[in-house]
Amino acid sequence: MQLQKHLYLIGFMGVGKTSTSKQLGKKLGAAELDTDEMIVEKEGKSIPDIFADSGEEYFRGLETGILDDLAKMEPCIVSCGGGMALRKENVKKMKQTGVVVFLVADPETIYLHVKDSNDRPLLNGHMNVPYIAGMMEKREPKYQEAADIIIKTDGYLPFQIADQIIEILEKRI
């Protein structure tokens, strides 16, 4: 299967966007990019440092700029930062240039994936299931609204999630 448009993976932090994206890249022979990595490279500093120095709003603006950069590129698989789909402007840009896949997991699964991480500024001091569940609940409507495809990831390995996405995409062609 050849990608005709970008494939954007969205969802809460720790849901498996990056690992699934890597599997999709291998299976589809497509380039695979991570918006957070692109921002870190462009800014020359870590995401926690960007948040500390310039704030969340500045970071969200950088995400929008990355989508403009992606619009000029060949179709690829894009692992998006957890907040990418929170701005209507970003959702519009993603829909114009690609298919948006929302990866979903339970708060307990997310916690297991992120509990040892120090590079998630929005969870600093709040690394617990109730806080994660609350954040997820607030974001859920935005993710749902942005999604063309929704995949539940609990209990699946990244290669299995990638297979599910490919199967759905092949049915749409």
Describe this structure in words.
The protein is α/β, with parallel strands linked by helices and 173 residues long. Helix content is 55%, strand content 13%. The chain contains eight helices and five strands, in the order βαβαααβαβααβα. It has helices at residues 17-28, 35-43, 47-54, 56-71, 88-97, 107-114, 129-146, 158-172, and strands spanning 6-10, 32-34, 77-79, 98-104, 149-152. α2 (35-43) packs across α4 and α6 (107-114) crosses α7.
- One letter per element, helices H and strands E, the order comes to EHEHHHEHEHHEH
How many independent structural domains?
1
Derived structural class: alpha/beta
Average pLDDT for all residues: 90
Strand order in space, largest sheet: 2-3-1-4-5
Largest sheet geometry:
5 strands, parallel
Task: State the CATH class.
Answer: Alpha Beta
Instruction: Please mark out the parts with pLDDT under 50 across 5 or more consecutive residues, or reply none.
Output: none
CATH H level: which superfamily?
A: P-loop containing nucleotide triphosphate hydrolases
- What is CATH's topology name? Rossmann fold
